[in-house]
Structure formats: structure tokens, C-alpha cells
Design a protein that fits this description.
By secondary structure, the chain is an all-alpha fold. It has helices spanning about 1-35, 40-55, 55-75, 85-115, 120-130, 130-164. InterPro entries: Anthrone_oxy (IPR013901). Pfam families: Anthrone_oxy (PF08592). This is Putative membrane protein.
């Protein structure tokens, strides 16, 4: 049973860290880079990346998998020292899911639905997307998810210490 507890917590920690990295890459490179492009390039590139990220590996294993793995790790550590850290990480990660679904995804969907950049008013589509708002929410989820990763790393340390 100890091996399963550690494995679940390790998997939750790794996937949470991976998703934090995805958010950080968007915050530190992708959006600043796209922000320096013309409207057609911005719309076309964002649409292409949005389509690419909607895949079973990222959505299933990373984005949703991290939440499920953190929940499982918490349930497997009921009454143990790592539990409060796992629970706090779960809440923070859940907040990133809520932010993503309520703030970022609707903007992504609207930009995707705007149509082919060769046939639409790309300036209007980009303005309606509201890059500044998308970036603010992405920074929030980046920070929350990074802290969740740190909390899970600490919980993993405590679990390993208890197992030793």
C-alpha cells in the first residue's frame, strides 16, 4: 500500500509540475511572442496552438489527470502528515481548472470560432479575444499551479520521510 501511496503522489506531483510548465511557457514566451506579431499571424498561430493542445495526452493525463491524481493521492494519505499539503494543492489546482474553464477557454473558443484568418477581420477577432485579460488569467493560473506543485513536492518529501 505504501508503494501505491507514493506512486500516486509522485504522479500527481509530476503532472502538476508539467501543467505549471505549460502555463509558464504560455506566460513567458508564447503570448509575449505572439503579442509582437501582426493580427493575422496572432490569430492563425493562436488558433493552431489551441487546436494542438486539445489532445488526449494534455487534457487527459495533464490537465484533468493532475486533478484526479491529486485527489487519489489525498485519499490514499488520509490521516497522514502529507494530507494537508495535498489538500491545499488540490484546492489550488482546482482553482486553475475553474479559471481555465471560465476565463481562458471561452476566449480560445471564440477566437477559434471566428474562422479562417484568410477570410475574417483578424483585427476585430484579436480585439474581441482581449489578450490582456487572457494573459492576466493565465498568470493567475500559472502562479496557483506553481504553488500547488511546490506543495505536492513538500508532501512527497514528507511521505518519503515517513516511509523511511
Amino acid at each position: 500500500m505504501e508503494g501505491l501511496r507514493i506512486a500516486a503522489l509522485l504522479a500527481a506531483t509530476i503532472t502538476t509540475g508539467m501543467v505549471a510548465g505549460v502555463y509558464a511557457i504560455w506566460a513567458n514566451t508564447i503570448m509575449p511572442g505572439l503579442g509582437r506579431t501582426d493580427d493575422r499571424t496572432f490569430v492563425g498561430a493562436f488558433q493552431a496552438m489551441d487546436r494542438a493542445i486539445l489532445n488526449p495526452v494534455f487534457i487527459g493525463l495533464g490537465f484533468l489527470g493532475s486533478l484526479v491524481l491529486t485527489l487519489v493521492a489525498g485519499l490514499l494519505h488520509l490521516g497522514e502528515d502529507p494530507l494537508p499539503w495535498i489538500a491545499a494543492a488540490f484546492v489550488l489546482y482546482l482553482l486553475t481548472v475553474i479559471i481555465t474553464i471560465s476565463a481562458n477557454v471561452p476566449r480560445n473558443d471564440a477566437l477559434r470560432a471566428a474562422g479562417d484568418p484568410d477570410t475574417i477581420d483578424v483585427a476585430a477577432a484579436r480585439a474581441a479575444f482581449d489578450e490582456a485579460r487572457w494573459r492576466r488569467f493565465n498568470l493567475a493560473r500559472t502562479g496557483l499551479n506553481t504553488v500547488a506543485f511546490g506543495l505536492l513536492a513538500w508532501a512527497l518529501f514528507l511521505a518519503g520521510k515517513a516511509a523511511a
